[in-house]
Amino acid sequence: MLPPDRIKLHEYYFRPFLSQAVIQERVTELGNELNARLAAGNPSFVIMLKGAFIFAADLLRASRLGGEVSFVRTSSYVGTETGGEVKLLLPPEESLVRDKDVVLVEDIVDSGLTMQAFLPKLRELGPRSVTLVTLLHKPEAQRADIPVDLVGFTIPPKFVVGYGLDYDGLGRHLPALYQLEETY
Ligand code: IMP
């Protein structure tokens, strides 16, 4: 039987994957872990738009860490496949990176190509340290070796939406995560 909360975005159906409660519990743990690592430091949160904005809002509050917040934006996927090329649409603010303990907040590391392109640009600005936190990690899809420090959930290489992540502009508002349904 199909789950009652199966949803349709454009032409695709998605099934419930991770509930709001499960996500919140894990985000609380990640926040505590960040606090333990960085409470004595000089944290500066750099948030990857657009997908990480909801995760970052919850993570910051869970971490109880003060510190600056800034946003960066790289070019995103078209549809559900990576195009491979990564452009920097909104670059990092140097004054919020130099000599800071940067907490880089990402929604998902999939192929890793975005981070492979972005991390050297961030390091050029002279952070004291970089801690990469991602809500989701798809190691089976990874095509670049990325030093991910904290992972919310390791997931299979299937497309997901919700909790800030979209499919072609839809689904960011969903409080839970949904996975693309491949069989009907
Ligand atoms: P990567 O460069 O392949 O690691 O992908 C990075 C970006 O692709 C993420 O920040 C997301 O914006 C997007 N992306 C990758 N997989 C998914 C997914 O399953 N759902 C929604 N967006 C995704």
Structure report:
This protein is an alpha/beta fold and 184 residues long. Helix content is 22%, strand content 30%. A hairpin with a 2-residue loop joins β1 (7-9) and β2. The radius of gyration is 16 Å and the shape is globular. Bound molecules: inosinic acid (IMP).
Number of strands: 10
Low-confidence stretches: none
Helix segment count? Answer: 3
What distance lies between the first and last C-alpha atoms, to the nearest angstrom?
Answer: 10 Å
Any idea of the CATH topology?
Rossmann fold
CATH architecture: 3-Layer(aba) Sandwich
How would you characterize the largest beta sheet? 6 strands, mixed
Morphology: globular
Mean of residue pLDDT values: 92
- Name the helix and strand elements from N-terminus to C-terminus, one letter apiece: EEHEHEEEHEEEE
Which class do the helix and strand fractions yield? alpha/beta
Biggest β-sheet: strands ordered side by side in the sheet = 5-4-3-6-7-8
Radius of gyration: 16 Å
The CATH C-level name is Alpha Beta
Bound molecules: inosinic acid
